[in-house]
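Sequence in, structure out.
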Amino acid sequence: MKLIIESNTDWKLSSSEDWISLSDSEGSGRIETDMNEALNRQINIYPNPAGKVLNIEFGLTEREVDIHLFTIDGKLIHQQSFYHVPNAEMNLDDLKKGIYIVKVLLDSTTVTKIILLD
């Protein structure tokens, strides 16, 4: 991501592992982003509703990605790790129709999405 700001005002950049904040010296302008939100937009889980296979695109090729699948009441029913690949497929053939929770874990960040198995 590239951000260019042209202004006569001094800007202060603050950041942590999870967020970036840019504010002007007068306190009247502020730009803030949540890094988890950015990662959430990068991860694509489809189709939803899902059939027999769930596709997960995370676009990250140099890290380990763990994917956990939970029932709606929080029971872990599937866990899989992927290394150095930009996407994955999860076979859902053995599961009953219903609502499930997919958690994608990358480093210290977790992205959670709800899927419907049709």
